[in-house]
Amino acid sequence: MTAKLPMTASGYEQLQEELRHLRSVERPAVIKAIAAAREHGDLSENAEYHAARERQSFIEGRVAELEDKVSRAEVIDVSKLSGDTVKFGATVTLVDEDTDEEMTYQLVGEDEADVKQGRIGITSPIARAIIGKSVGDSVEVDTPRGAKQYEILGVTWV
């Protein structure tokens, strides 16, 4: 059995949109580019042809990857979740116990993670450390710069 991939509705929509774009725009464009490059004759020394074939290979690989992810997607409606315990979809406010720096992250699927926008993947070290914890709990997270202590200040649901 293949594992389900938890994701928010917006994350699922992003995957669907990328898949649609690759199928309806990128794939036909690369097919035209290959056909045009073939008309230039000798394929063994045709850089345009080889570049187009390489692009086609990338597109087909990405389409297969996206089809797999979409088929295994488990879309979780975050608006129906609640509680004080950290789980997928929660927006969590943490404070670094050494620097008193506060940060807020939403726990999302791996494909929707974007730290700059405050979304971290459910399998990231911070997410794994805080899953199942509640407000007031202190957690230790192994980071590239060593262990960091965080306290959970808040758990909200958007």
Short synopsis of the structure:
With 158 residues, this protein is an alpha/beta fold. The protein is 39% helix and 25% strand. It has 2 domains: 5-75, Orthogonal Bundle (Helix Hairpins); 81-156, Transcription elongation factor, GreA/GreB, C-terminal domain (Chitinase A, domain 3).
Largest sheet descriptor: 5 strands, mixed
* CATH architecture heading of the largest domain: Roll
CATH superfamily of the largest domain: Transcription elongation factor, GreA/GreB, C-terminal domain
Oligomer: single chain
The span between the termini is: 32 Å
- Rounded average pLDDT: 91
- Strand order within the widest sheet? 5-4-3-7-6
Instruction: Report the CATH C-level class of the largest domain.
Output: Alpha Beta
Our estimate of the beta-strand percent is: 15-25%
Helices and strands, in order, run as EHHEEEEHEE
What percent of the residues sit in helical stretches (DSSP H or I)? 25-40%
Report on this structure.
It is a single chain. By secondary structure, the chain is of the alpha/beta class. Helix content is 39%, strand content 25%. The protein contains 3 helices and 7 strands. A 5-stranded mixed beta sheet has the order 5-4-3-7-6. Strands 1-2 form a two-stranded parallel ribbon. The longest helix is centred in the N-terminal third of the chain and has 30 residues, at 9-38. The radius of gyration is 22 Å and the shape is elongated. The model has no long low-confidence stretch (mean pLDDT 91). Residues 6-75 form the Transcription elongation factor GreA/GreB N-terminal domain. InterPro entries: GreA/GreB_C_sf, TF_GreA/GreB_CS, Tscrpt_elong_fac_GreA, Tscrpt_elong_fac_GreA/B, Tscrpt_elong_fac_GreA/B_C, Tscrpt_elong_fac_GreA/B_fam, Tscrpt_elong_fac_GreA/B_N, Tscrpt_elong_fac_GreA/B_N_sf.
